[in-house]
Write a structure and sequence with these properties.
With 114 residues, this protein is mostly beta strands. It has two domains: 44 residues, no CATH class; 52 residues, no CATH class. The chain has no helices and ten strands.
């Protein structure tokens, strides 16, 4: 895997998927969770970047326990999830049950409902 670069370093590769989509190599690592501006430059020096959108680095979530730990085979059981580093990703927050998944609901950084 190629090493990510800092602005001003030698150019990474990117792939022009189509006229409205560019695929970049990889996201560079971050020392801590943060929201940073994401920009694109076709010149390589970012003088052509006219705007940015937020990109979020997060710490991987850790599940400590769930309640209840069992439910009806037909589904429908509300599961409380307790842990650390939960982030509110709205409709993208998902809870996995084997090969199935359901919508998750963020309550706070230590509590979710599925």
């Amino acid at each position: 895997m190629p090493r990510p670069r800092r602005i001003g370093e030698a150019e990474n590769e990117f792939w022009l998927r189509n006229e409205t989509c560019v695929i970049c190599d990889i996201a560079p690592p971050s020392d801590e969770p943060d929201i940073v501006p994401f920009t694109v430059s076709f010149l390589g020096d970012f003088t052509d970047a006219v705007n940015s959108v937020p990109y979020r680095y997060y710490t991987n979530p850790k599940i400590s326990w769930i309640f209840p730990r069992y439910g009806d085979k037909d589904g429908g059981t509300m599961i409380e999830v307790f842990g650390e580093n939960f982030v509110n990703f709205d409709q993208n927050l998902r809870c996995g049950f084997g090969t199935s998944e359901v919508q998750g609901y963020y309550v706070n950084e230590n509590y979710l409902i599925c």
